[in-house]
Amino acid sequence: MTTPVSSELGQFIPLHYHYNMLNDRARMESFRAALNHVVHPGAKVLELGGGTGVLSFFAARHAAKVWCVEKNPALAQEARRILDLNPHGDKIEVVLADAFDYLPPEPVDIVICEMIHVAMLREKQIPVIAAFKERYLQRFGPPLPVFVPEALVQAFQPIQHPFTFSGYFAPTILFQDPEATHDDTVPLSTPIVYQTLAYDETLPTRCEWQGTLTFDRASDFNALRFITKNVLAILPDEGRTIDWFSQYLIVPLAQPVTIGTERQLQLAFSYHPGDPLEALRPLISEA
Protein backbone atom coordinates (compact mmCIF):
# COMPACT_ATOMS: atom_id res chain seq x y z
CA MET A 1 0.00 0.00 0.00
CA THR A 2 1.31 3.46 -0.88
CA THR A 3 1.08 5.92 2.00
CA PRO A 4 -0.96 9.03 1.09
CA VAL A 5 0.96 12.29 1.34
CA SER A 6 -1.59 13.60 3.82
CA SER A 7 -0.72 10.77 6.20
CA GLU A 8 2.61 12.44 6.94
CA LEU A 9 0.81 14.92 9.18
CA GLY A 10 1.41 13.99 12.79
CA GLN A 11 3.92 11.21 12.12
CA PHE A 12 7.09 13.21 12.74
CA ILE A 13 6.53 14.69 16.17
CA PRO A 14 9.82 16.15 17.50
CA LEU A 15 11.83 14.07 19.95
CA HIS A 16 11.39 16.57 22.78
CA TYR A 17 7.60 16.17 22.53
CA HIS A 18 7.99 12.43 23.11
CA TYR A 19 10.18 13.13 26.12
CA ASN A 20 7.40 15.35 27.51
CA MET A 21 4.93 12.48 27.08
CA LEU A 22 7.14 10.36 29.33
CA ASN A 23 6.56 12.99 32.01
CA ASP A 24 2.75 12.82 31.64
CA ARG A 25 1.94 10.76 34.73
CA ALA A 26 -1.75 10.28 33.90
CA ARG A 27 -0.94 8.91 30.45
CA MET A 28 1.89 6.69 31.67
CA GLU A 29 0.05 5.15 34.62
CA SER A 30 -3.15 4.56 32.64
CA PHE A 31 -1.36 2.75 29.83
CA ARG A 32 0.75 0.75 32.26
CA ALA A 33 -2.36 -0.41 34.11
CA ALA A 34 -4.19 -1.24 30.88
CA LEU A 35 -1.30 -3.22 29.40
CA ASN A 36 -0.71 -5.08 32.66
CA HIS A 37 -4.33 -6.18 32.39
CA VAL A 38 -4.52 -6.94 28.67
CA VAL A 39 -1.14 -8.55 27.89
CA HIS A 40 -1.21 -12.15 29.04
CA PRO A 41 1.95 -14.23 29.58
CA GLY A 42 3.41 -15.34 26.28
CA ALA A 43 1.44 -12.88 24.15
CA LYS A 44 2.65 -11.52 20.82
CA VAL A 45 2.27 -7.73 20.68
CA LEU A 46 2.53 -5.13 17.93
CA GLU A 47 2.88 -1.41 18.61
CA LEU A 48 2.13 0.96 15.74
CA GLY A 49 3.88 4.31 16.17
CA GLY A 50 6.15 3.31 19.04
CA GLY A 51 7.77 6.65 19.84
CA THR A 52 10.29 6.19 22.65
CA GLY A 53 9.15 2.57 23.09
CA VAL A 54 7.61 3.00 26.53
CA LEU A 55 4.32 1.26 25.71
CA SER A 56 6.22 -1.64 24.18
CA PHE A 57 8.23 -1.73 27.41
CA PHE A 58 5.03 -2.00 29.45
CA ALA A 59 3.80 -4.81 27.19
CA ALA A 60 7.11 -6.69 27.31
CA ARG A 61 6.73 -7.36 31.02
CA HIS A 62 4.40 -10.28 30.14
CA ALA A 63 4.72 -10.64 26.37
CA ALA A 64 6.92 -13.18 24.64
CA LYS A 65 7.61 -10.85 21.71
CA VAL A 66 6.90 -7.20 20.84
CA TRP A 67 7.29 -5.49 17.47
CA CYS A 68 7.66 -1.72 17.98
CA VAL A 69 7.06 0.06 14.65
CA GLU A 70 8.33 3.62 14.22
CA LYS A 71 8.65 5.60 10.98
CA ASN A 72 10.93 8.38 12.21
CA PRO A 73 14.54 7.09 11.91
CA ALA A 74 15.89 9.31 14.70
CA LEU A 75 13.09 8.24 17.03
CA ALA A 76 13.48 4.55 16.19
CA GLN A 77 17.18 4.82 17.02
CA GLU A 78 16.39 6.59 20.29
CA ALA A 79 13.78 3.96 21.19
CA ARG A 80 16.35 1.20 20.69
CA ARG A 81 18.87 3.05 22.84
CA ILE A 82 16.42 3.55 25.70
CA LEU A 83 14.90 0.07 25.53
CA ASP A 84 18.37 -1.44 25.87
CA LEU A 85 18.67 0.31 29.23
CA ASN A 86 15.56 -1.40 30.59
CA PRO A 87 14.45 -4.91 31.55
CA HIS A 88 12.91 -7.07 28.79
CA GLY A 89 14.36 -4.88 26.06
CA ASP A 90 15.59 -8.04 24.35
CA LYS A 91 11.96 -9.06 23.74
CA ILE A 92 11.31 -5.90 21.72
CA GLU A 93 12.22 -5.56 18.05
CA VAL A 94 12.25 -1.93 16.90
CA VAL A 95 11.09 -1.88 13.29
CA LEU A 96 11.80 1.15 11.09
CA ALA A 97 8.64 1.18 8.98
CA ASP A 98 5.44 3.07 8.22
CA ALA A 99 2.46 2.02 10.34
CA PHE A 100 0.27 2.44 7.25
CA ASP A 101 2.17 -0.38 5.52
CA TYR A 102 3.62 -2.71 8.14
CA LEU A 103 2.36 -6.16 9.04
CA PRO A 104 4.02 -8.41 11.62
CA PRO A 105 5.58 -11.66 10.38
CA GLU A 106 2.97 -13.69 12.27
CA PRO A 107 -0.42 -13.15 13.91
CA VAL A 108 -0.41 -11.11 17.11
CA ASP A 109 -2.64 -11.06 20.18
CA ILE A 110 -2.58 -7.34 20.95
CA VAL A 111 -2.07 -4.17 18.91
CA ILE A 112 -1.11 -0.95 20.69
CA CYS A 113 -1.60 2.30 18.81
CA GLU A 114 -1.30 5.70 20.46
CA MET A 115 -1.36 8.09 17.54
CA ILE A 116 -3.91 10.11 19.48
CA HIS A 117 -4.69 13.80 19.45
CA VAL A 118 -7.70 15.42 21.08
CA ALA A 119 -10.77 15.29 18.79
CA MET A 120 -8.75 12.75 16.74
CA LEU A 121 -7.34 15.62 14.72
CA ARG A 122 -3.82 15.83 13.29
CA GLU A 123 -2.63 12.33 14.20
CA LYS A 124 -3.70 9.24 12.28
CA GLN A 125 -5.04 6.85 14.91
CA ILE A 126 -8.31 5.99 13.16
CA PRO A 127 -7.04 5.66 9.55
CA VAL A 128 -3.93 3.73 10.68
CA ILE A 129 -6.00 1.16 12.57
CA ALA A 130 -8.59 0.92 9.79
CA ALA A 131 -5.84 0.25 7.22
CA PHE A 132 -4.10 -2.22 9.54
CA LYS A 133 -7.29 -4.24 10.08
CA GLU A 134 -7.86 -4.58 6.33
CA ARG A 135 -4.29 -5.76 5.68
CA TYR A 136 -4.23 -8.05 8.71
CA LEU A 137 -7.44 -9.85 7.81
CA GLN A 138 -6.26 -10.32 4.22
CA ARG A 139 -2.97 -11.84 5.40
CA PHE A 140 -3.98 -13.80 8.50
CA GLY A 141 -7.77 -13.88 8.58
CA PRO A 142 -9.86 -13.53 11.75
CA PRO A 143 -9.86 -13.06 14.63
CA LEU A 144 -8.53 -9.55 14.96
CA PRO A 145 -6.12 -8.79 17.82
CA VAL A 146 -7.24 -6.89 20.90
CA PHE A 147 -6.63 -3.17 20.45
CA VAL A 148 -5.23 -0.81 23.07
CA PRO A 149 -7.03 1.57 23.33
CA GLU A 150 -10.18 -0.53 22.89
CA ALA A 151 -12.63 2.32 22.38
CA LEU A 152 -13.12 6.06 22.17
CA VAL A 153 -15.69 8.58 23.42
CA GLN A 154 -15.71 12.13 22.05
CA ALA A 155 -17.68 15.05 23.44
CA PHE A 156 -17.87 18.83 23.23
CA GLN A 157 -19.08 21.49 25.63
CA PRO A 158 -20.17 25.10 25.02
CA ILE A 159 -18.11 27.41 27.23
CA GLN A 160 -17.16 30.98 27.95
CA HIS A 161 -13.40 31.37 28.00
CA PRO A 162 -11.13 34.43 28.24
CA PHE A 163 -8.73 34.88 25.34
CA THR A 164 -6.78 37.86 26.73
CA PHE A 165 -3.15 37.23 27.66
CA SER A 166 -1.34 40.00 29.56
CA GLY A 167 -3.60 42.50 27.81
CA TYR A 168 -3.25 40.86 24.38
CA PHE A 169 -6.55 39.62 22.93
CA ALA A 170 -5.92 36.45 20.93
CA PRO A 171 -8.96 34.22 20.26
CA THR A 172 -7.06 31.12 19.13
CA ILE A 173 -7.01 27.38 19.68
CA LEU A 174 -5.86 26.44 23.19
CA PHE A 175 -5.20 23.27 25.16
CA GLN A 176 -6.09 22.44 28.77
CA ASP A 177 -4.76 19.81 31.14
CA PRO A 178 -7.72 17.48 31.94
CA GLU A 179 -6.24 16.80 35.38
CA ALA A 180 -6.21 20.49 36.37
CA THR A 181 -8.90 22.90 37.58
CA HIS A 182 -9.74 25.70 35.16
CA ASP A 183 -11.51 28.44 37.07
CA ASP A 184 -11.42 30.84 34.12
CA THR A 185 -13.47 28.49 31.92
CA VAL A 186 -17.23 28.74 32.44
CA PRO A 187 -19.23 25.68 31.26
CA LEU A 188 -22.55 26.68 29.67
CA SER A 189 -24.02 23.17 29.48
CA THR A 190 -23.03 19.59 30.24
CA PRO A 191 -20.74 17.89 27.69
CA ILE A 192 -22.48 16.44 24.63
CA VAL A 193 -21.21 13.14 23.22
CA TYR A 194 -20.85 13.26 19.45
CA GLN A 195 -18.93 10.06 18.72
CA THR A 196 -18.28 6.65 20.24
CA LEU A 197 -16.39 3.83 18.58
CA ALA A 198 -14.75 0.49 19.27
CA TYR A 199 -11.55 -0.12 17.35
CA ASP A 200 -12.45 -3.73 16.51
CA GLU A 201 -15.58 -2.51 14.69
CA THR A 202 -15.97 -0.56 11.44
CA LEU A 203 -14.29 2.82 11.94
CA PRO A 204 -15.79 6.12 10.78
CA THR A 205 -14.40 8.27 7.99
CA ARG A 206 -15.78 11.47 9.56
CA CYS A 207 -16.21 12.99 13.01
CA GLU A 208 -19.30 15.19 13.01
CA TRP A 209 -22.32 16.51 14.83
CA GLN A 210 -25.34 18.61 13.97
CA GLY A 211 -28.07 19.62 16.37
CA THR A 212 -29.60 22.16 18.73
CA LEU A 213 -27.77 23.64 21.68
CA THR A 214 -29.51 24.69 24.88
CA PHE A 215 -27.80 26.44 27.76
CA ASP A 216 -27.82 26.22 31.55
CA ARG A 217 -26.93 29.87 32.19
CA ALA A 218 -26.83 33.30 30.60
CA SER A 219 -23.42 34.32 29.35
CA ASP A 220 -21.33 35.13 26.32
CA PHE A 221 -20.86 31.89 24.44
CA ASN A 222 -17.51 32.20 22.67
CA ALA A 223 -15.90 28.74 22.42
CA LEU A 224 -16.32 24.98 22.38
CA ARG A 225 -14.26 22.65 24.55
CA PHE A 226 -13.57 19.24 22.97
CA ILE A 227 -13.06 16.23 25.25
CA THR A 228 -11.58 12.91 24.13
CA LYS A 229 -11.78 9.91 26.45
CA ASN A 230 -9.61 6.99 25.37
CA VAL A 231 -10.89 3.72 26.80
CA LEU A 232 -7.62 1.82 27.13
CA ALA A 233 -9.06 -1.39 28.56
CA ILE A 234 -12.51 -2.69 29.47
CA LEU A 235 -12.69 -4.80 32.62
CA PRO A 236 -16.19 -6.34 32.56
CA ASP A 237 -15.61 -8.58 35.58
CA GLU A 238 -14.82 -5.48 37.64
CA GLY A 239 -17.48 -3.29 36.04
CA ARG A 240 -15.00 -0.56 35.09
CA THR A 241 -12.69 0.74 32.40
CA ILE A 242 -9.14 2.08 32.40
CA ASP A 243 -9.30 5.48 30.73
CA TRP A 244 -7.00 8.25 29.65
CA PHE A 245 -8.20 11.72 28.67
CA SER A 246 -6.33 13.61 25.98
CA GLN A 247 -5.72 17.29 26.61
CA TYR A 248 -8.89 19.31 26.20
CA LEU A 249 -9.08 21.42 23.05
CA ILE A 250 -10.67 24.89 23.15
CA VAL A 251 -11.84 26.20 19.79
CA PRO A 252 -13.04 29.83 19.69
CA LEU A 253 -16.15 30.76 17.73
CA ALA A 254 -15.80 33.17 14.84
CA GLN A 255 -18.03 35.57 16.78
CA PRO A 256 -19.22 35.41 20.43
CA VAL A 257 -22.96 34.95 20.97
CA THR A 258 -24.87 36.33 23.96
CA ILE A 259 -27.12 33.53 25.22
CA GLY A 260 -29.65 32.85 27.95
CA THR A 261 -31.38 29.75 29.24
CA GLU A 262 -34.27 30.29 26.80
CA ARG A 263 -32.12 30.66 23.71
CA GLN A 264 -31.42 27.81 21.33
CA LEU A 265 -28.75 27.69 18.64
CA GLN A 266 -27.95 25.32 15.81
CA LEU A 267 -24.42 23.91 15.76
CA ALA A 268 -22.69 21.85 13.09
CA PHE A 269 -19.14 20.64 12.52
CA SER A 270 -17.60 17.90 10.40
CA TYR A 271 -14.02 16.77 9.71
CA HIS A 272 -12.00 13.71 8.79
CA PRO A 273 -9.98 11.92 11.48
CA GLY A 274 -6.39 13.10 11.15
CA ASP A 275 -7.31 16.45 9.60
CA PRO A 276 -5.29 19.52 10.69
CA LEU A 277 -6.66 21.53 13.61
CA GLU A 278 -7.95 24.21 11.24
CA ALA A 279 -10.47 21.73 9.81
CA LEU A 280 -12.55 21.97 12.99
CA ARG A 281 -14.71 25.02 12.28
CA PRO A 282 -17.96 25.08 14.22
CA LEU A 283 -20.87 26.72 12.40
CA ILE A 284 -23.43 28.48 14.60
CA SER A 285 -26.87 29.71 13.52
CA GLU A 286 -30.25 30.49 15.06
CA ALA A 287 -32.41 27.46 15.82
Tell me what the structure shows.
This protein has about 290 residues and is an alpha+beta fold. It folds into 2 domains: about 5-115, Vaccinia Virus protein VP39 (Rossmann fold); about 150-285, Hnrnp arginine n-methyltransferase1, CATH 2.70.160.11. Helices cover about 20% and strands about 35% of the residues. The protein contains 5 helices and 17 strands. The strands form 4 sheets. Strands 6, 9, 10, 11, 13, 14 and 15 form a 7-stranded antiparallel beta sheet that branches. A 5-stranded parallel beta sheet has the order 3-2-1-4-5, sandwiched between helices. Helix 3 (about 55-60) links the parallel strand 1 (about 45-50) and strand 2 (about 65-70). It is elongated.
Question: Topology of this protein?
Answer:
Layout: H1 15-22, H2 25-38, E1 44-48, H3 54-60, E2 65-70, H4 73-83, E3 92-96, E4 110-113, H5 125-140, E5 146-148, E6 151-160, E7 164-165, E8 168-169, E9 174-176, E10 186-187, E11 192-198, E12 207-213, E13 219-235, E14 240-245, E15 248-259, E16 265-271, E17 283-286
Parallel strand pairs: 1-2, 1-4, 2-3, 4-5
Antiparallel strand pairs: 6-10, 6-11, 6-13, 7-8, 9-15, 12-16, 13-14, 13-15, 16-17
